[in-house]
């Protein structure tokens, strides 16, 4: 008995580990990190390469041993990117960090800048972007889980934003110009955004369900249409008097979502992030712990099984797209009420970034927050890269693309993993599994979802 | 769908367009242009007269050819990729990267005095194609060897190019927009569109490679079991999409003479329109030519109408093709996507 | 003389499975050889080794006395081996000639053009030589399954195959087409070709083959001459013990009509009418069986009943109520359990664990919900009980459905559906791919359900199964019931005729309907029964 115990314990641990490794969530987090790391690595070489060909009077970085001079300091870029996104809590050395000349001596100096506070404008920008991406990320994620590729979050956001701005401006005179009136107007505005985005999302949903029109194409088209129609509407009808750009009138100050701790110039409000987090948890509970959520997930992962289990496929498609559009629309509301205070023609690509956020998050609502935060940092940091270094901040766009590319190829990391850990028992899949759905292999990015936990 | 056009018989054209759907697209495109010409000639004072006056000018033909080059060529590339079973949604990215590279190379050659004018542009064109092929190759490896989700990888290709081109432009020229290198005539665009369409049509319909390509997208196992490597054929399909889209992107940029990298860059969604165009043309190169020309002429027309002083906001006119796409997709035709498009294929063992 | 094919000690291992275990096989030139065995016995794997799709873990392949090593099917083809897979490897939207020459297209103009005329001519010539009747210019998707099979054979012959492997060639054919296929075999062997075909049906092997090799659990149990062996001996070799299908007759007379199908017409996904006016009644305490060759409209009939397909005409009534506008979900709620034909596409969500699969179909049922919330604890205990009762192995409700073997997946579905406490059980191929022990268990449970007064509609392509379990047996052919017979008295020959679309003279078989008292009566099958 006693002799076999260590063996039994070992077997238990092994099976536990195997189970652990089998959990797709863990896999996904690892892959996300690996993708991030690899993107930074590739980005490093891009900076290095372009730093070699760019022209400058003095080298920003000299490669050890070779003595080659580079116009850009790749270490500095990434440092500034992350440091800048937080508003510069860490020292930046001249001419660049990790410069061999000072490395051994100055390392102990690493520490917070005196006078740095988390409630600064740069960090506010990062948080503001994060907040908005939470909504668009959730929007894309919920559609994905239903097996639908909603590339139209951008359009849904544009429509939601426009409706929010128009409704709030129009109704403002009906409510008292104080905090209570403001809160009511904000609620109405967010609702208007949800309705606008929801309806705009329902269109491709209905086209998919009842006319079998591919949602990837229709949503792309609807993005263009939303942008153009909204632009023309504002240009011709709703343009604020005397405005130099194409924009609606300003939402009254008291009906904007203002910050509690951050500076008012930072365009970030904690309350908005809170709304985002509530949506996030709500969506998670909806997907994993309700019957309708189950319907939606099964439709996404195996449409035939959903049909067998009595799910109305058409209705579920429309529902999922409407919900997705509503979340995108709320994103638009928040953008109007928190960031801009009005609808302006230059709407950022929050919807497209939502796709990247959702993919990085493995389409799991819980993963959306860290993924959105990462892209928030990239956004906030890009601005600082532009200010503090010579490296074009467009680099961040490249990084974004690389991250998605690497996240899209889990097989690559699995192969590397297998090479690193050759003894790992090979996970065998039962039979040659049916590739049940025809949604362009989206099963590969769908989370199985652990519910019994 | 009962389309009155399908009753019309056109002897020579029908030999090339066996598919009823495709001939509808082609006939609709050229038929509506002909109708417009007729009305314009009969009632020169009416709006139709104005319109036909606007359409049938040298400027319009040139503008249509220029705009159609990236759209039609990228669509032809898309056909090759998707017929082989790889959905290439990254055509937009291929257009962007080739547009930038062609201008960059032409500029550098000219600046260094190695080659001038037309020769520099000529080399720039091929450099653009090469850049596009490289990016397409990476996309192919990621999708075919590493089994990436094709849609996501395609988006990544777009995003990478969308970031990389303005980034490099800023690195080299200090601005997301490049300096000018002088533009090439629209005749090049028109010629390449025509040649590209014919080559694509011949390759798909009359060569063994074309048959293999279609088989790889419809039933890869059928191809595999007769001893043709599915992954090789798919790689070829993806690389060809890079060649065609690269030619389109280079022509787009060289036609203007510079690369514009702000916002969505000068490509402005033409790669996505290209996807719509080939779906519209039911994967038939001639159908893609018809649909692409239609879109391009609409685009050119709205620019022309602006010049003529019609008070329609340009954004609204720009919207027309998108609305048309949705209506057609939903209510008129159904295209048949290759059965195995989007699926990974693994040979046994 | 050397045998045309000699497989020498072939072993093929997959991670965790030994598919072939030291198999020897020799086939003479110009003969027909049957490879017989149950599903999962390793027949297809062995043939895939011969065809170069798999590389053997051990052993060697000898063709015409020459040892060969095939890295790919192309090598096998070059050595004169051709394979016709169970699922045809044809590109449906392409023409027959394109499919035949695929990968070996004759070209002209320095390879820039496929020589279509030469290809067409080659196909026509081959087709004529072996007495096939195919039109080279027809599209594959437009021709019948029998013709598609010939296209596959032409493909192999075009590549110069001398040895033809056919994987379950009769599975999709009508009896008439099967006869034609046997003629084709004869024509081919007369001209010196060697044929190996895979089958799990005894009658086919004894009918068409000169020699039979039986595989069981990946091992060669024995090779016998067709003339020297009886069906019983072969059956024993296949399953390893004597098979006894015991009939258990209903003890109670059937009760009220639960399911009433009237003049049902349905189309398949391509819009072709495949069910043409079927009528049937299933009563409480009765098993109504439907036999027939796969693909004669059974699937569409069942889907129309269970609510997965909208019939184009006719009615389906459940407990006397018309189900015309009743959704699939409502049908489940009213007590219709359904074991679907395709368990991996429909019956289970492959990436979900068994707990999540336990509520598939009852995700809105009060049993598992509190308002909008799904109670996963209750789902888990339900999964647990199904696993225990139906002996699902391994008994792990947190494992994903795809990690279970086909048989265990099936047991879980059967358990889940039976435990719904339904009024009607629609079971399609309930024991397909299930091992013998579990098959018996599922049969017992079906019989129990009947004694509990449930109505059972059973579809199976296994004749012995439907015959043993059914109280009344309908035979379906080309979208119609060719007869409804008493399974206790009908002979195998008669069933064969019915499956081939023939009707029987009234005095050769007892047609059964159900009388007013619910007892089976001997009336003509297609006669309307007034309830």
From TrEMBL, chain A:
Protein name: Inner-membrane translocator
Region (Disordered): 424-453
Organism: Halorubrum aidingense JCM 13560
Gene Ontology molecular function terms on file: transmembrane transporter activity
Pfam families in UniProt: BPD_transp_2 (PF02653)
UniProt-listed InterPro entries: ABC_transp_permease
Bilayer topology annotation: Multi-pass membrane protein
Keywords: Cell membrane, Membrane, Transmembrane, Transmembrane helix
Ranges that cross the membrane: 29-48, 122-144, 156-175, 181-203, 215-234, 268-287
Subcellular location: Cell membrane
Biased composition (Basic and acidic residues): 424-437
GO CC terms, sorted: plasma membrane
Top-rank lineage group of the source organism: Archaea
Transmembrane in keyword set: yes
TrEMBL record, chain B:
Subcellular locations according to the entry: Cell membrane
GO MF term list: transmembrane transporter activity
Pfam family, one: BPD_transp_2
The UniProt record lists the keyword Transmembrane helix: yes
Transmembrane segments: 21-43, 55-81, 93-110, 122-144, 151-173, 238-260, 272-296, 308-332
UniProt KW keywords: Cell membrane, Membrane, Transmembrane, Transmembrane helix
Membrane topology, as annotated: Multi-pass membrane protein
GO cellular component: plasma membrane
Classification via PANTHER family: GUANOSINE ABC TRANSPORTER PERMEASE PROTEIN NUPQ (PTHR43370:SF1), SUGAR ABC TRANSPORTER INTEGRAL MEMBRANE PROTEIN-RELATED (PTHR43370)
Record protein name field: Inner-membrane translocator
TrEMBL record, chain C:
Ribosomal protein listed as a keyword: no
SMART domains xrefs: AAA
Start and end residues of each ABC transporter domain: 5-242, 259-503
Topological type in the membrane: Peripheral membrane protein
GO molecular function: ATP binding; ATP hydrolysis activity
Region annotated Disordered, chain positions: 507-531
Record GO cellular component, one term: plasma membrane
Compartment(s) where it occurs, according to its Swiss-Prot or TrEMBL record: Cell membrane
UniProt keyword annotation of Repeat present: yes
Gene3D superfamilies: P-loop containing nucleotide triphosphate hydrolases
InterPro entries linked: AAA+_ATPase, ABC_carbohydrate_import_ATPase, ABC_transporter-like_ATP-bd, ABC_transporter-like_CS, P-loop_NTPase
Keyword set, alphabetical order: ATP-binding, Cell membrane, Membrane, Nucleotide-binding, Repeat, Translocase, Transport
PROSITE patterns the record matches: ABC_TRANSPORTER_1 (PS00211), ABC_TRANSPORTER_2 (PS50893)
Organism superkingdom: Archaea
UniProt-recorded name of the protein: ABC transporter
Organism: Halorubrum aidingense JCM 13560
């Amino acid at each position: 008995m006693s002799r076999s115990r260590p063996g039994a314990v070992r077997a238990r641990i092994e099976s536990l580990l195997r189970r652990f490794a089998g959990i797709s969530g863990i896999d996904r987090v690892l892959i996300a990190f690996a993708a991030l790391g690899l993107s930074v690595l590739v980005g490093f070489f891009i900076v290095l390469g372009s730093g070699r060909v760019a022209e400058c009077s003095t080298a920003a970085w000299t490669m050890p041993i070779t003595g080659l001079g580079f116009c850009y300091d790749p270490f500095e870029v990434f440092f500034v990117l992350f440091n800048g996104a937080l508003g510069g809590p860490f020292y930046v050395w001249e001419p660049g960090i990790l410069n061999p000349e000072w490395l051994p001596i100055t390392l102990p100096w690493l520490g917070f800048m005196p006078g740095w506070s988390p409630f600064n404008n740069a960090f506010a920008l990062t948080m503001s972007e994060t907040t908005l991406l939470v909504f668009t990320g959730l929007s894309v994620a919920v559609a994905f889980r239903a097996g639908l590729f909603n590339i139209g979050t951008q359009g849904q956001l544009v429509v939601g934003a426009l409706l929010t701005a128009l409704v709030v401006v129009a109704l403002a005179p009906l409510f008292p110009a104080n905090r209570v009136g403001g809160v009511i107007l904000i609620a109405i505005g967010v609702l208007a955004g949800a309705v606008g985005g929801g309806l705009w999302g329902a269109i491709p949903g209905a086209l998919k369900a009842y006319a079998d029109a591919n949602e990837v194409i229709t949503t792309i088209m609807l993005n263009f249409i939303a942008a153009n129609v909204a632009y023309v509407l504002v240009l011709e009808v709703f343009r604020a008097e005397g405005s130099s750009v194409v924009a609606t009138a300003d939402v009254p100050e008291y009906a904007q979502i203002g910050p509690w701790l951050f500076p008012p110039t930072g365009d970030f409000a904690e309350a908005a992030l809170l709304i985002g987090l509530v949506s996030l948890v709500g969506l998670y509970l909806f997907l994993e712990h309700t019957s309708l959520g189950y319907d939606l997930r099964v439709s996404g992962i195996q449409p035939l099984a959903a049909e067998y289990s009595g799910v109305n496929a058409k209705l579920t498609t429309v529902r999922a797209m409407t919900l997705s559009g509503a979340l995108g629309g709320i994103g638009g509301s928040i953008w109007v009420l928190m960031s801009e205070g009005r609808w302006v023609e230059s709407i950022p690509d929050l919807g497209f970034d939502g796709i990247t956020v959702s993919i990085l998050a493995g389409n799991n609502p819980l993963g959306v927050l860290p993924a959105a935060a990462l892209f928030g940092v990239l956004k906030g940091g890009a601005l600082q890269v532009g200010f503090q270094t010579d490296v074009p901040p467009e680099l961040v766009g490249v990084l974004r693309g690389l991250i998605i590319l690497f996240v899209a190829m889990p097989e690559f990391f699995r192969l590397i993993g297998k090479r690193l850990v050759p003894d790992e028992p090979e996970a065998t899949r039962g039979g040659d599994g049916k590739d049940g759905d025809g949604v362009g292999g989206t099963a590969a990015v769908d989370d199985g979802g652990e519910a019994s936990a | 769908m009962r389309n009155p056009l399908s009753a019309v018989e056109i002897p020579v054209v029908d030999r090339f367009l066996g598919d009823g759907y495709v001939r509808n697209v082609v006939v609709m495109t050229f038929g509506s242009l002909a109708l417009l010409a007729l009305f314009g000639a009969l009632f020169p004072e009416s709006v139709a007269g104005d319109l036909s006056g606007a359409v049938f000018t040298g400027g319009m033909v040139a503008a249509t050819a220029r705009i159609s080059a990236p759209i039609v060529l990228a669509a032809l590339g898309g056909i090759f990729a998707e017929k082989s079973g790889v959905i290439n949604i990254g055509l937009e990215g291929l257009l962007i990267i080739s547009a930038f590279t062609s201008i960059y190379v032409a500029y550098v050659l000219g600046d260094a005095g190695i080659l001038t004018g037309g020769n520099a542009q000529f080399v720039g064109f091929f450099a653009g194609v090469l850049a596009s092929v490289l990016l397409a190759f990476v996309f192919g490896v990621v999708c075919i060897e590493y089994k990436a989700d094709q849609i996501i990888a395609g988006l990544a290709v777009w995003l990478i190019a969308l970031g990389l081109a303005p980034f490099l432009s800023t690195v080299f020229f200090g601005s997301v927009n490049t300096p000018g290198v002088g533009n090439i005539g629209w005749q090049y665009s028109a010629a390449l569109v025509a040649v590209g369409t014919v080559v694509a049509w011949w390759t798909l319909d009359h060569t063994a490679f074309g048959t293999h390509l279609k088989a790889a997208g419809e039933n890869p196992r059928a191809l595999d079991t007769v001893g043709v490597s599915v992954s090789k054929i798919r790689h070829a399909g993806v690389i060809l999409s890079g060649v065609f889209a690269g030619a389109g992107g280079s022509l787009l940029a060289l036609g203007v003479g510079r690369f514009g990298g702000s916002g969505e860059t000068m490509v402005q969604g033409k790669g996505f329109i290209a996807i719509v165009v080939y779906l519209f043309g039911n994967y038939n190169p001639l159908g893609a030519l018809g649909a692409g020309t239609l879109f391009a002429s609409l685009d050119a027309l709205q620019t022309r109408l602006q010049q003529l002083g019609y008070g329609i906001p340009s954004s609204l006119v720009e919207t027309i093709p998108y609305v048309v796409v949705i209506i057609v997709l939903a209510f008129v035709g159904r295209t048949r996507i290759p059965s195995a498009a989007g699926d990974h294929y693994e040979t046994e063992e | 003389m050397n045998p045309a094919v000699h497989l020498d000690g072939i072993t093929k291992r997959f991670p965790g499975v030994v598919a072939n275990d030291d198999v020897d096989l020799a086939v003479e030139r110009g003969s027909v050889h049957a490879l017989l065995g149950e599903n999962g016995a390793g027949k297809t794997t062995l043939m895939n080794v011969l065809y170069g799709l798999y590389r053997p873990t051990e052993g060697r392949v000898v063709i015409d006395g020459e040892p060969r090593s095939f890295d790919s099917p192309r090598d096998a083809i070059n050595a004169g081996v051709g394979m016709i897979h169970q699922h045809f490897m044809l590109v449906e939207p392409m023409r027959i000639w394109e499919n035949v020459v695929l990968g070996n297209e004759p070209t002209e103009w320095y390879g820039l053009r496929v020589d279509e005329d030469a290809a067409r001519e080659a196909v026509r010539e081959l087709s004529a030589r072996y007495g096939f009747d195919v039109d080279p210019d027809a599209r594959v998707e437009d021709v019948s399954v029998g013709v598609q099979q010939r296209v596959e054979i032409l493909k192999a012959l075009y590549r110069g195959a001398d040895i033809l492997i056919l994987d379950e060639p009769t599975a999709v054919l009508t009896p008439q087409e099967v006869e034609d296929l046997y003629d084709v075999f004869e024509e081919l062997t007369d001209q010196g070709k060697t044929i190996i075909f895979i089958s799990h049906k005894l009658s086919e092997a004894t009918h068409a083959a000169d020699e039979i090799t039986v595989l069981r659990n990946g091992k060669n149990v024995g090779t016998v001459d067709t003339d020297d062996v009886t069906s019983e001996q072969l059956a024993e070799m296949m399953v390893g013990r004597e098979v006894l299908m015991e009939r258990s007759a209903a003890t109670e007379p059937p009760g009220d009509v639960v399911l009433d199908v009237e003049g049902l017409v349905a189309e398949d996904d391509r819009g072709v009418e495949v069910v043409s006016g079927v009528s049937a009644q299933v009563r409480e305490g009765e098993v109504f069986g439907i036999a027939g060759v796969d693909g004669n409209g059974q699937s569409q009939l069942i889907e129309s009943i269970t609510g997965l397909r909208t019939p184009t005409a006719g009615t389906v009534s459940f407990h006397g109520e018309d189900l015309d506008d009743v959704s699939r979900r409502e049908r489940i709620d009213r007590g219709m359990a359904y074991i679907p034909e395709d368990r991996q596409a429909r019956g289970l969500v492959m990436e979900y664990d068994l707990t999540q699969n336990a509520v598939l179909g009852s995700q809105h049922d009060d049993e598992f919900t509190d308002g909008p919330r799904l109670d996963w604890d209750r789902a888990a205990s339900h999964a647990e009980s199904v696993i225990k009762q139906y002996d699902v192995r391994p008994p792990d409700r947190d494992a994903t459905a795809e990690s279970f073997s086909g048989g265990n997946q099936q047991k879980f579905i059967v358990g889940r559906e039976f435990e719904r406490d339904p009024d009607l059980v629609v079971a399609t191929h309930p024991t397909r791919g299930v091992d013998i022990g579990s098959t018996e268990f599922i049969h017992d449970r079906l019989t129990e359900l009947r004694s509990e007064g449930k109505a059972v509609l059973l579809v199976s392509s296994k004749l012995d199964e439907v015959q043993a379990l059914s109280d009344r047996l309908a035979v379906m052919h080309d979208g119609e019931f060719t007869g409804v017979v008493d399974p206790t008295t009908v002979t195998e020959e008669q069933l064969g005729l019915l499956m081939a679309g023939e009707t029987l003279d009234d005095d050769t078989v007892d047609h059964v309907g159900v009388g007013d008292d619910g007892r089976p009566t001997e009336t003509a099958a297609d006669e309307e029964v007034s309830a």
